[in-house]
Amino acid sequence: MSQLTHRTVAVNGIEMHVAERGEGRPVVLCHGFPGLWFTWRHQIEALASAGYRVIAPDMRGYGGTSAPADASEYDRPHTVGDMVGLLDALDVEQAVFAGHDFGAHLVWDLPAWAPGRVSALMQLSVPRTPRLPVQPSVGFKYLASQHFAHVHYFQEPGVADPELGEHPREFLAKIFHALSGANRYLDCWDFPSEGNGYLDVLPQPPALPWNWLSEDEFDYYAAEFTRTGFTGGLNWYRAEDAVWVQNEALHDRPIELPVTFIAGAKDPVLEMMGREPFAAMRKLVPGLVSTHVIDGAGHFVQMEKPAEVNAAMLEFLAGLPA
């Protein structure tokens, strides 16, 4: 089996860093915030060993990939164009796509935006939900009137960027811990928006290593974000209004492709969605084959419980038509 390789390819007007391993059916892994190709390190090895060609890019704005300064360049034409351009650059006609966090937001949209280029979806942590009745920034502003809301705090350029960028190790340790199964992230809502930054409301993490994150693994994240800052990732949040407008006629189009959904039982995304977090998804995703809620895991389920996530992915992939 081939070893992990890294290369940079010209994609959709940017340079995209890609980690690859294996041969066979292509599987593209799309990370979210604050992630990197490295977020999928456990899945890359497992899927490649099982006979799949695993393609894990640093998404637009992250790591070794270009990071346009203007948030308008993180809308759906740009981010979908990245994925289509990546397939073209790698001479891949069709792939299975997996997404986590903002990567999942994008991957949910791919069947409507790029029909014919996607054969199946493996989605982590972010269920498919109906279209919001108001533009996202309006909802974010309302949340911020009730309590601290990072989605609103991230909207204004030049606010979160220096706070997080000047303290990358502190922020990464805090956010990884806060969103993990070892913490209840929604406790951040106990703080008001006024007078608080994100570092003020996130809990103090325990010392590394943790049972799912080693010091060396954390150091890789810290080195990358120390080099790049966080503006590229924050721009995905700032493009949400544009994405909402661009998806008006497409968002609720049913997804007929085979789909599996995987989440941690302690993921705050599920907690915010109430008792039946999957009810709407079942209606919007008639192709849903399976759901897996993994005990003890939070938002970063693929890192916190890699064996369980890998098993769910491999079971799903094995059941796909040849």
From TrEMBL:
Record flagged with keyword Hydrolase: yes
UniProt keyword annotation of Hydrolase present: yes
Top-level taxonomic group: Bacteria
All residue ranges annotated as the AB hydrolase-1 domain in the record: 26-126
Protein name, UniProt field: Alpha/beta hydrolase
GO molecular function: hydrolase activity
Organism: Rhodococcus spelaei
Keywords: Hydrolase
